[in-house]
Each structure stands twice: as C-alpha cells, then as structure tokens.
Please model this.
Amino acid sequence: MDIGNPLDFTDRVVVVTGGTKGIGFTIAETFLAAGAHVVVCGRSQPRALPAAGTRQAVFLAADVRDPQAASGLIDAAVARFGRLDVLVNNAGGSPDADAATVSPRFVEKIVALNLLAPFYTAQAANRVMRDQDRGGSVINIGSVSAHHPQPGTAAYTAAKAGLLGLTRALALEWAPKVRVNHVTTGLIRTDGAASVYGEDGGSAVAGVIPMGRMAVPSDVARTCLYLAGDLARYVNGADVAVHGGGEVPARFLAARSSGAR
Model:
C-alpha cells in the first residue's frame, strides 16, 4: 500500500505540552519542519517560540496540572485549526529531594505535573481524536527513572512509573482510533543538564552509556515523529527506549577500574 511520505505532517495539528523550552522545544520544531501546525503551551509567555523557516508554533498559556486548563488547551487548539492529530505530553521534571523529609505539597506537585497532567490532556485529546477519520496519536515522554530509580527521585520515579502504566492502559481502551505510546528517555544533553553534568556535555557520564554519548533533544524528537506517523500505525502501547542502551552495570565499571578480569 502506498502511504506516500510517512514523515510528511502537512496540515496535521500537533500539541506539545512544555514545548517552549528544552526537549519540547525541539519536538515542536521537528514537527513544524515536517509541515505540521504546532501548538505549544506553558504557564508564561516564552522569550522565543519554536520555528522552522517562516513557520512558527502557536503559544497558548496553560497550566496542564489543572484539569480545566488542560481541556481548554485542547479545545483552543481545535478551535484554531479544526482538528487534532498528535498530542505529545512532554511537560514534566523534578528537582532532587530527600524522600524522608520531602513535603506532601512537593509530592503532590510532582505527581500532578508528571502523571495527572498527561492524563488530563490525553482525555481531552481523545474526545476529539476518536471522532476523526484518521483518529490520532498520543505520545507520553517518560524517563528511565520509571525503570531504574536513583536516589532523590522517589516522587518523580513513582509518577513516571505511573505514566508508563497509564500509557498501556489507555492504549488498550482507546484503540484502534487513538494510539497511545511511551518514550523512555535517558540522559539528555540540555541546558539544564549542563549544570549537573558539566559544560562538556557530560563526557564523563558518556562513558557509562553504551552509545558513548548522552542523547540530544533531536534524538527524542525524531522518535516522536516516527510514533506519530504512518510508519508506526500499528504501534500501540509501546515503550520505546531512547537511552543509548541504558547504562553499563556499576559492578562491571567497578571491576574494570580495579583492574579485575
């Protein structure tokens, strides 16, 4: 069957939460370059918007942790462009915090941003996509923390593990019109990561990644382009790992550094 150019998103409509900075910014630019109309959101007006050539993303202010705001975001995108083909739930993150002393308010905020917000926006998107001729695609941006927690990330890890479970549950309920997939991201070289891993892009950390480098935002963006398009039209409920093979086991690194064979 001829499906034309499977990476051509001309006239399709894409919403990227948290698309005003970091990974989301690059995801939005990638869909713009593929021809899509793109809507990004954040809680405040950004200094710059994702763009490709003369085309620019549309910004809508929304705190997607609020159910009404999340639904309003989707409604506004549909009112402007007439449909919704792709939702990328990218907004998320958390500072490190000691699980023994972290406040309930902190936990609530982290769970709301990383688990509840994607649920709210996905619900609103499904209401639109299920009645469209081509249905739609929801992509949840997760974290390797859902599979391999690290100290200081208890609330974040729990929320991201929940997001993976949510993805699989929605994929069961909403198919075949709406596909729901998950991207497990590993260490990604962003401006925020530089403060943690160094301005050299984490060259020391890269030594524990089989691919020999940290990911860059475009690695995640291209995966979203695949999952949203016709090449992946039978891919549903999947967890696509974009982490360079994970991390070399600590016991192997310890043995190597000690000279053991």
